[in-house]
Specification:
Blueprint lengths: L10 H10 L4 H19 L2 E4 L1 H16 L11 E5 L26 H8 L3 E6 L33 H8 L5 E6 L5 H7 L2 E4 L18 H6 L1 E6 L2 H11 L24 E4 L10 H16 L3 E4 L5 H19 L1 H7 L2 H13 L5 H24 L2 E5 L14 H10 L2 H9 L3 E11 L2 E11 L4 H15 L3 H11 L1
Helix pairs in contact: 2-3, 5-6, 8-16, 9-16, 10-13, 10-15, 12-14
């Protein structure tokens, strides 16, 4: 492999070389930057180019290593950061024109933890306005495109992150997830991610003027989008390092105790009346067979009521959004995002007042039911979406569009309301009339056992392969 091709390496393979000194951090970062400059003009995934400071940092890492200083687990790995998280000296715009000059005075915990691990930030990635769409477009930076083609949305709200990492712009991409914003882009772009459980990754933005609402605090989590499950095992232990600025962080190791006997997996194809597309069903069958062959005990059984939990959770979140965010959206949002929120409130009638307080209490009921179920079934294999990923701007097409984008995504936001970890991994490459498209499935896990979900994702990936190879060949052929 030539220096120019280092961008093709997963983070796990790259760190084997950078930590040993076989390649320099500067060469690893330069290759990723060159790739960014080659493909990002077409994708618009990275909206702030940090090449100069990235190369300065990479050279500093090389000098430190040469002096015999210890190297971090992510030494020289090029990464991207989503523009809704603070990075010192850069704007935390959240895709909103009115916030374009909000310059962070310090790094958020996830940025600090990545730096401590030796990662190098090469750019900041796009998000929709207020990071509250499952698609990525905004008046400040424009639309992000999916590297698989413009027939598929790049997902959201971490759409820039998903498109970047799958196009080879950095080996790791930071994102976050309040209802699916790590998993939607993973599914759209054929990437791998784990939505961590509540309290696993420290979170706080020094630039914020007020504390977030209780549901935003308990449903939103920080994470990474990667090209391989192994890269999550490599990188997440660094991301979960404690930070005193998050008083509710739970400082427990990434790896939990091994479970006795074969791990039981609850397998369900239930889509609650939404049509299950044949390609999604094939992806589920492939994932089931991969886990069975890997030694898991897969049983077709329904988990506790996902539909009620998910819909109740998102309606409760909409109640908090209506109370705490609607005035900001009306004042600073574009007509597009204001119209989308109007339809959100129709699809998910906000729970407010006394009912809101009661639903916050009932959240413990749902979580307890799942906790008891997961004593027998530590993992749950399910669809992520019942249909292949939607087209760009589908959520601007009224009630029908929002229903297809978010209304049927109950497996996604149910996990946020429950605070449970959930991995999303591609299990099939579909050849649809609109073009090739990855199909991802979801694996939910017991509380604090993100490692089990990632292990299962790795077993599925071992059967299916990684999705970036056909993508890169296709992009190269199109040049």
């Amino acid at each position: 492999m030539t220096t120019e091709d280092y961008w093709r390496l997963n983070a796990t393979d790259l760190t084997t070389l950078t930590r040993s000194g076989d390649i320099s951090a500067e060469d690893a970062v330069q290759s990723a930057i060159d790739r960014m400059h080659e493909v990002n003009p077409d994708l618009n995934a990275v909206v702030e180019d940090l090449s100069t400071e990235a190369l300065d940092r990479a050279r500093h890492l090389d000098r430190s290593r040469a002096r015999g200083a210890p190297v971090g687990p992510l030494h020289g790995v090029p990464v991207t950061i989503k523009i809704n998280v603070d990075q010192k000296g850069h704007a935390t715009s959240n895709g909103v024109v009115a916030l374009k000059d909000v310059i962070a005075s310090d790094d958020a915990p996830v940025v600090r933890n990545l730096h401590k691990a030796g990662a190098v930030v090469i750019g900041r990635t796009n998000t929709p306005e207020f990071s509250f769409r499952a698609d990525t477009d905004n008046p400040l930076h424009g639309r992000t495109h999916n590297p698989w083609g413009r027939h598929i949305s790049p997902g959201g709200s971490s759409g820039g992150a998903g498109a970047a990492v799958m196009a080879g712009i950095g080996a790791l991409a930071h994102g976050n997830d309040i209802g699916g914003s790590l998993r939607f882009p993973a599914a759209a772009n054929g990437a791998v991610t784990i939505k961590p459980g509540l309290g696993r990754v420290p979170a706080w933005n020094p630039s914020q003027q007020a504390e977030r609402g209780l549901l935003a605090q308990s449903m939103s989590v920080q994470g990474l989008i990667t090209r391989s499950a192994a890269d999550l095992h490599l990188s997440m232990p660094s991301l979960i390092a404690a930070d005193p600025r998050d008083p509710f962080h739970v400082p427990i190791p990434w790896r939990g105790e091994p479970l006795d006997g074969p791990i039981k997996v609850a397998f369900t194809k239930d889509t609650f009346g939404y049509a299950l597309h044949s390609e999604v069903e094939k992806a589920l069958d492939t994932a089931r067979d991969a886990l069975s062959d890997a030694g898991y005990q897969v049983e077709e059984v329904s988990p506790p009521d996902v539909f009620e939990c998910g819909r109740t959770g998102y309606r409760t979140l909409m109640g908090e959004v209506l109370t705490l965010m609607k005035s900001d959206i009306e004042a600073a949002g574009s007509k597009t995002i204001r119209d989308i929120f109007d339809v959100y409130f129709q699809e998910f009638p906000p729970i407010v007042g006394t009912d809101l307080v009661q639903m916050l209490a009932k959240r413990s009921h749902y979580a307890r039911e799942w906790s008891l179920f997961m004593q027998d079934y530590p993992l749950v294999l399910s669809p992520f979406l019942p249909q292949p990923f939607f087209k760009p701007d589908r959520d601007t097409e009224g009630a029908e569009g929002v229903h297809e984008v978010l209304g049927c995504a109950v497996y996604s936001y149910a996990m946020n309301f429950l605070g449970l970890p959930a991995a999303c991994v591609p299990a099939r490459l579909a050849d649809l009339p609109s073009g090739p498209q990855p199909i991802n499935i979801q694996i939910a896990a017991r509380r604090w056992r993100e490692d089990l979900a990632v292990d299962a994702a790795a077993a599925i990936e071992a059967r299916v392969g990684q999705m970036h190879l056909p993508l890169w060949k296709r992009m190269s052929a199109a040049k």
